[in-house]
Every structure is written in C-alpha cells, then in structure tokens.
C-alpha cells in the first residue's frame, strides 16, 4: 500500500522501492490480495500440474502510470510532476505461466488502485475527503 501511495504522500523511501523494481523488471507487478488468495487455492487444487516458481501479478505498471491514474481519477490528490515522468520500459518477465495453467485474475489495475485509495482512507493514511 505504501509503495503505491508514495506518489501521493511523497514518501521517497516507499517510492524508491517500486522504482528499483522498474529498473530490474521494467514495470512493477501488482495484484489484489483476493487474487493472491485465489491463486494459492488454485495452485493447491491443481498440485499435480504445478511445479517451479510462478510470478503472480494481474498487472504490470510503472510508477508514472500509478501517478497518472491517481491524478486523473482522484483530482483531490496532489501529484508532484516528477512522479508523472515515465521512461517507457517494457516488462522483462510476466505472469503468463499461471494463466497458462488456467488461472483467471479477477482484479485489474484500476480496481487494485481504487481499493488501495479506499483502504488508505479507511485506515486514516490519507486524510482527504472521500469522492464517494
């Protein structure tokens, strides 16, 4: 939560973590907690065909894409221009292996980011007026 909110809060330490991931992987893999749980259940139920490591991510985004989404959909948030600069990197590795086994993600980037804002408000991490 802190990493995705860092473009809103200006927390440089939390912001540097996804930026490092972008340097290594091209983009930041994100996933909704419910999809994580469902992926674990799916893997357990399909144990006979599962082996090796699986990257579990329903979306790959840059920190600039996160900042742009928040800026466009939450105008009450004030996003610093420096977070909107996007070097346009490509994803170096993805999560196709899990989908090839038949897993279907329920949540996309928009829902993940919206839920992140909603939960941050509930927890008092963002003391901004609710848009709903």
UniProtKB/TrEMBL annotation:
InterPro entries: NAD(P)-bd_dom_sf. Gene3D superfamilies: NAD(P)-binding Rossmann-like Domain (3.40.50.720). It comes from the Eukaryota. This is Uncharacterized protein. It comes from Solanum pinnatisectum.
């Amino acid at each position: 939560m802190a990493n995705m909110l860092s473009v809103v809060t200006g927390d440089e330490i939390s912001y540097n973590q996804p930026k490092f991931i972008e340097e290594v992987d091209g983009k930041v893999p994100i996933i909704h907690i419910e999809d994580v749980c469902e992926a674990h259940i799916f893997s357990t139920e399909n144990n006979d065909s599962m082996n090796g490591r699986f990257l579990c991510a329903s979306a790959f985004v840059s920190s600039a894409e996160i900042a742009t989404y928040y800026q466009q959909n939450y105008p009450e948030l004030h996003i610093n221009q420096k977070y909107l600069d996007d070097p346009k990197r490509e994803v170096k590795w993805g999560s196709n292996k899990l989908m090839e086994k038949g897993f279907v993600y329920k949540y996309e980037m928009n829902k993940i980011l919206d839920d992140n804002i909603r939960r941050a408000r509930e927890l008092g991490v963002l003391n901004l007026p609710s848009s709903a």
